[in-house]
Amino acid sequence: MDTSSIVILDFGSQYTQLIARRVREQNVFSVVLPCTASIEEIRSYHPIGIVLSGGPCSVYDADAPPADPAVLALGYPVLGICYGLQYIVHQLGGKVSSASKREYGHAEVNATTDNPLFAGLPATMTAWMSHGDHAEELPPGFRQIAKTSNAVAGIADPDRNIWAVQFHPEVHHTKQGTALLRNFLFGICKATPDWTPEHFIQSTIAAIREKVGESGHAICALSGGVDSSVAAVLVHRAIGDRLTCVFVNNGVLRRNEFFKVQDTMRDKLGLNLVAVDASGRFLAKLAGVTDPETKRKIIGNEFISVFDDEAARILRESAESTEDGEGANVAWLVQGTLYPDVIESSSVKGPSQTIKSHHNVGGLPENMKLKLIEPLRDLFKDEVRRIGRDLQMPEEILQRQPFPGPGLAVRILGEVTPERVSLLQDADDIVVTEIKTAGLYQQIWQSFAVLLPVRSVGVAGDQRTYGYTCAIRAVHSEDGMTADWVPLPYEVLKTISSRISNEVHGITRVVYDITSKPPGTIEWE
Predict the structure, then answer these.
(1) Sorting pLDDT into bands at 50, 70 and 90, what band is 106?
(2) pTM
């Protein structure tokens, strides 16, 4: 890293990603690692500070998340949050026990402000608590710097530069939380706020040029969405015409998407685009498959197979056009992988389980010939949009709602067939059209239709019908890690339901999904 870096060790808290976001909002780079990360991996990021996240376990449990205690002796400033405070107390000779009065939700914290962590903050503040254990005895060298009526709320050992709070400064409910994090970043870690979009663009372009070399060629897996489009523009800035973008019709795109994306990418971004209609290949592979993970793996494998074929074709045609017959060295595959993809596809949370694989993270074949370039791998979606604006990309591309890599395959529950794809394309087109007509599209993170393997009886023209059920999904989110369902206006829902029921022959019932994430996910599969 050529910029200030904060390493966040994740003990399983639902708020860990918020810590990363709050740090980045201060233009300081942060990375989330599992609490089991080795000392060597932590040091590889050249951190100027370490944050220990919250977590659902008790530090004294036999199955408590294992972390190397040496992390507290590396010499970097440390900030423990909730479970992180208890971990520090437990490891360094104090005592943590079950609290007689547990604290969940809002609490009043009284702090001493004669220390760098609480400097400039009010002596009394409202904070968000979520703990059933508390620090009963502090380790040698530590003193209490904050408390509630029930528990220790902040501790410090300035000599070892270790600080901790029992509350969650990363959530909006803690009104002075950002100020406290700023104190840690700039007052204690001496961070420099140099992780800006412009810095990211310049350093990423330089890294891509070095990686690909002067003669290397790359192909980009282009979907037409925000992520792959920004990734393509970044790589195009780095290597120019040595990038070929490949847009694959996998048979589960939205209605007319195959043609719309080609026009946008060629005309508005000036990218070298090859469009491949491989819908038959994908649908044949998906025939009879109902398991969501298997669908993702199949689509990931088939994508790579298509890209390998295109790389071979580009090499062959390049060789035919040169005097020496050697052709281009196509060795790289560019993907728009984002940080949430990485987090959800691998168990970064120590004891947690993988939620689902993403075709561009967990679904890639082990024997893939192409090497990966993932310029956006460390970014959240809103950060990608900011990068895109600095690259002067059109807003109509940057404001597109996210669309899953496996496409409609994970919005068709059960087997994916041409008939079901067509039904969902029609229903989804109505959902998106009506939400745009209502002026709500850019206010919503994602809005789409899901086809359920549930048939129900209906009536049309005095005749009995027996068709599929369609679920409508619309959610608010900042980065896809958590989401709340959107209370769409009744008139919009009424219009969507009426149009789908009347215009999409084969769907006889429409329902609305009011599940948040967690406990659900945004996509149904």
Answers:
(1) confident
(2) 0.71
